[in-house]
Amino acid sequence: MAPFLLRNIVNCVVKFLELAAAERKLVPSFLKMEFHSMSENDQFRTAALECPVELPPPPNHHRWRSFFLTLYMQVISSEEDEKRMFKHKDWDFCVIHSKHETDQQTARSFIRLLETTLGIFGTCNGDVALGENTLQAATTMIQRSSKVFVLSTRHLENQSVPKYVFHSALMQELQRPTWRRKIIPLYPRGPKYTPLFLANLEGLSFGNDSRVVELVSGAISLEEQMQVRARRDRASLTFSTRLRELRQQRIQEIQGVIGGLRREYGDDYNPNEQVTETLQSIEAIMLDDTASSNDGGRQVINMSGCQAVSVGPSFHFYGSQRTDEDPSAFE
């Protein structure tokens, strides 16, 4: 068996085991039981195992139990939202491409091919979320990818094709000598179009070259793959640890609220009047890096050369020109 094929099989097995382990770490066992589809009695029993609370006896028990389950479901929902927002920031490769529909599909197909055959991790322009730190996120994608494939088609520099908001600035950054060591031109149907800044760089033909997987395997060394995998493992562990800490804080918040309301207002009080305020208190317990890691919120972008960039009304541009050679950030 060819060495690169054996390595690919090993990588795929490792990735499968890794994803399974990540699922076990990030998803509590009761969530796998589809908590939301349980009967109310089963929900209460399940919730009380993790969050023991002393509720009033009948006839007030039902309203307090309803209040408790509402708060507990909010904990689950908040955790699910945070897991959906979690994104890795280390990749084996990324693909830079135009916003043309054909190029987007080609980039996705290329990523799927490498992920399924080599078991490596990829991302592309379309994965960069619009938000306050869009340009920084695009730069991070380049910095923290072992290799950068630039999908070289006639759409890449065609002014009539709508551009990603960071496209022009990113194209300028890619022309810096500091980036060239990791750039590989990617030709969908052979090198029919090559931008000037990709000249003299050895590229790959995707679509008519059956050796593309083997060539990529040689371009991204096993050592680089293991480094990426180790960084992603550390990020997942840090996230899952913090998620468990947040869960415990929210559980304690529920216990404190129920105990406090009973002491202050008595068992005859209807606690559901406090639902909105209490839910806001639970929701306020957020991941420390939620805003910075998920690029949410308003968008303020400083960039030059932003011709043919299509953006919404909340985007603002300042035409300052970069003169430094540091590719680590856009100013």
Order of H and E elements: HHHHEHEHEHEEHHHH
Largest sheet: 5 strands, parallel
Class by alpha and beta content:
alpha/beta
Strand content: 5-15%
Task: Describe what you observe in this structure.
This protein is α/β, with parallel strands linked by helices and 331 residues long. It has eleven helices and five strands; from the N terminus they run H-H-H-H-E-H-E-H-E-H-E-E-H-H-H-H. It has helices at residues 3-26, 29-32, 40-50, 61-85, 101-118, 134-143, 167-174, 212-219, 222-265, 275-283, 290-294; strands at 91-96, 122-124, 145-151, 183-187, 204-205. Strands 2-1-3-4-5 form a five-stranded parallel beta sheet, sandwiched between helices. Helix 4 (61-85) packs antiparallel against helix 9 and helix 4 packs parallel to helix 10 (275-283). The model is unreliable at 16-32 and 289-331 (pLDDT under 50).
